[in-house]
Write a structure and sequence with these properties.
elongated; alpha+beta; 31% helix; five-stranded antiparallel beta sheet
């Protein structure tokens, strides 16, 4: 009966990548029999599941992700809140030489002001718009029909999370990880130019001179 539900309901097909939290199954379905489903995990081990488990318990099927053509990035950069400050005209002139900064300034100006007199530009706010401009210009990021945003999350004791939420247009695991890593390499390397730094425990890191965060551009 469980096999009928799984097959006629199109819950699982051979070739689907599934993850069953209550078991070690996290890989591709290689066989669907009457009583069992075989899953080849990423370490090439095989997990054998009773078919009824896929009816009784929730599991994750990544088929929709592959069919959509987009694989999600949802990761944060933890900003040290002590380095957030307003920017002066000299700071803005210095930052103007960074590629994509003109687009970041357009996004900054288009953002609604929350104060009657208008908001002062902060290094964290401008950096947030720079990250968005970077994603909008990236050839590997979906620009249409997929959510793209850069947002602040609730501040924590480990810093202020700046979360990237977007979709890579290559769903294969290795290319996706390469794109994601390259994006964060670039964004972390650019961070000091805005006078910001990533939060790091004081027991692990003491910054001798904050001016070292500044880069000539």
């Amino acid at each position: 009966f469980a096999n009928i539900i799984v097959t006629t309901g199109d819950l699982v097909r051979v070739g689907d990548w599934i993850h069953v939290p209550s078991s070690s199954a996290d890989g591709y379905v290689i066989d669907i029999a009457l009583n069992v489903v075989k899953v080849q995990n990423f370490d090439k081990t095989i997990t054998v599941l009773p078919t009824y488990l896929l009816v009784q318990e929730a599991f994750l099927n990544y088929r929709g992700m592959y069919q959509s053509g987009g694989r999600r990035i949802k990761r944060s950069i933890m900003l040290d809140q002590r380095t957030i400050r307003p920017l002066g005209s000299a700071d803005l002139d210095r930052l103007a030489g960074i590629p994509l900064m003109s687009r970041a300034m357009e996004l900054q100006r288009a953002a609604p002001a929350s104060e009657p007199g208008g908001d002062r530009t902060t290094n964290s706010g401008l950096y947030r718009h720079y990250v968005l401009a970077y994603l909008q210009a990236h050839p590997k990021i979906h620009q249409k029909d997929f959510t793209m945003l850069v947002r602040q999350l609730q501040p924590t004791a480990e810093g202020l999370p700046l979360e990237l939420y977007c979709f890579v247009n290559d769903t294969a695991w290795a290319p996706f990880e390469e794109v994601q890593s390259t994006i964060f390499d670039q964004l972390l390397a650019t961070l000091p130019a805005f006078g910001l730094r990533v939060y790091q425990g004081e027991s692990d890191f003491q910054e001798p001179n904050p001016e070292t965060r500044r880069l000539e551009v």
